[in-house]
Amino acid sequence: MTTTMTATRLRTGDVIEIEINGEAASALVLLASGDAVILDGCDGSTPFVVRLSDLGDVRVFDPSSV
């Protein structure tokens, strides 16, 4: 199960689902700061930095609900 939340509550280690070009993509939050996150797309590509203001709503995996 996932929980939708605003990007300002992301924490290092969260597994999230975001939309990239209209398609859902999973990513691991490698590092979260007050204004940006470093995400690993878990697809072999280089991790990328995204400003929290550019993320909007994200879906966060909650392992306790499985």
- Can you identify the CATH class? Mainly Beta
* Topology-level CATH name: SH3 type barrels
Task: Report helical residue fraction.
Answer: under 10%
Question: What would you call the structural class?
Answer: mainly beta
Biggest β-sheet: strands ordered side by side in the sheet:
1-6-2-3-4-5
Name the helix and strand elements from N-terminus to C-terminus, one letter apiece: EEEEEHE
Number of domains: 1
Shape: globular
Global mean pLDDT:
85
Largest sheet: 6 strands, antiparallel
Beta content: over 45%
* CATH hierarchy: architecture: Roll
Number of helices: 1
Given as residue ranges, the uncertain stretches (5+ residues, pLDDT < 50) are none
> Whole-Å distance between the termini?
6 Å
Give the number of DSSP strands: 6
Output the radius of gyration.
11 Å
Structural notes for this entry:
By secondary structure, the chain is mostly beta strands. It has one domain: SH3 type barrels (Roll), CATH 2.30.30. The chain is 6% helix and 53% strand. Strand 3 and strand 4 form a beta hairpin. The longest helix is centred in the C-terminal third of the chain and has 4 residues. The protein starts with a strand and ends in a 5-residue tail after the last strand. The model has no long low-confidence stretch (mean pLDDT 85).
Mind sketching the topology for me?
Layout: E1 2-6, E2 15-20, E3 23-32, E4 36-40, E5 48-51, H1 52-55, E6 57-61
Antiparallel strand pairs: 1-6, 2-3, 2-6, 3-4, 4-5
